[in-house]
Amino acid sequence: MTDINRAIEQLEWNREPRSLYEPVEYTLASGGKRLRPTLAMLASQMFEGNDEDVLPAALALEVFHNFTLLHDDVMDRAEVRRGRPTVHVLWNDNTAILSGDQMMIEAYRLLSGVPEEKLPKVLRMFNDMATGICEGQQYDMDFEARQDVSLEEYMNMIRLKTSVLLANALQTGAYIAGATEAQQQRIYDYGINLGLAFQIQDDLLDVYGDPATFGKATGGDILCGKKTFMLLTALHTATPAVREEIEAHLSATDTAQHKIASMTAIYDRLHVREKAEEAIAEYTGKALECLEALPHNDAAEALRNLANKLTNRKI
Q1: Is 256 inside any structural domain?
Q2: What is the DSSP letter of 161?
Q3: 62, 4 contact by CB (below 8 A)
């Protein structure tokens, strides 16, 4: 983590026009878990790779991830990210979009620094991942206008929107380090399952989390009627009467506090929190199983610990 943060700090953003690059610098300086580059580095270390070979890809993944957040915050009208005002709030929508575009370009520039013989496949994997994220985001937006979204559709959406980036980070690190195709698939599957557990945990925290540790205000998904694991589980397990109650609350013009409290009470009655916790445990278990056939070393142990830490974040 220290090496990754140092490398990110060394990226040069003191360029003109400042109105383009200052939001990029602001975004990358806001911290975060640095999860994607950490996964790439750990995957490389699992197969005894060279940190210098994988670092350009690790940095590219972090810059790309943060680019998607700038655009997501505009689309979601989110006002806070990692405890700080979002870029479109501090500047404006156009700046957030254009600075995000520049971050995507920078991600590809960084990616070109991986060993030349590895670059063609790394680039193909990166493009597949980026396409998946766009598809997932589009599904997410499409779901806003639909009332018949299934849990299966939701799980596919978060696989694309969240899991494929984690999985790509891991596979990229493993591939650059010389892992076999079978090993790459195993560590990719670890990332897919970890991402599913991670996103369901995020949905859970948006209802029951502490804003001080969650990094943003809770209840936002409820206020915008976002299709989450929590809402879809409630809708698919509720009686017709309770389903009508849910739909009434979501469409009502109540105060934000009342709407959040009302929906949380329904989740409590339907034991949605417990169902989410069961799903988190299930996907975390699947992720950990994927590591069993891979080398057992310090990097593997770090990935095991990371999975447990990420999916047991504080409520």
Answers
A1: yes
A2: I
A3: yes
Looking at the DSSP bridge assignments, the partners of residue 80 are 85
Residue 304 counted as domain residue: yes
Q: In the chain, which ranges are continuous DSSP H helix?
A: 2-9, 18-28, 35-46, 51-76, 87-90, 93-111, 119-144, 151-158, 164-177, 181-208, 211-214, 220-223, 229-237, 240-251, 256-269, 272-290, 298-310
State what percent of residues in the chain have pLDDT above 70: 97
Secondary structure (3-state) at 17: coil
Residue 27, CA distances (Å) to 3, 9, 23, 32, 165 in order:
18, 12, 6, 10, 19
Q: What is the mean pLDDT of residues 207-231?
A: 84
Q: pLDDT for 161-185, tens place per residue?
A: 999 999 999 999 999 999 999 999 9
Residues 256-284 as b/e (b if ≥16 CB within 10 A, e otherwise) read: eeebbebbbebbeebebbebbbebbeebb
3-state DSSP call for residue 11? coil
Whole-prediction pTM: 0.93
Amino acid at 292: E
Q: Is 81 helix (H, G, I), strand (E, B) or coil?
A: strand
Domain CATH code at residue 192 = 1.10.600.10
Domain count, the chain: 1
Tell me which residue of 237, 245, 311 sits closest to 275, measured CA to CA. 237
Going by pLDDT thresholds of 50, 70 and 90, the confidence category of residue 210 is: confident
User: Do the beta carbons of residue 121 and residue 113 sit within 8 Å?
Assistant: no
Residues 54-78 have pLDDT tens digits of 999 999 999 999 999 999 999 988 8
Let me know if residue 12 belongs to a domain: yes
Q: What whole-number distance in Å separates Cα of residue 54 and Cα of residue 40?
A: 7
Distance CA 291, CA 294 (A): 5
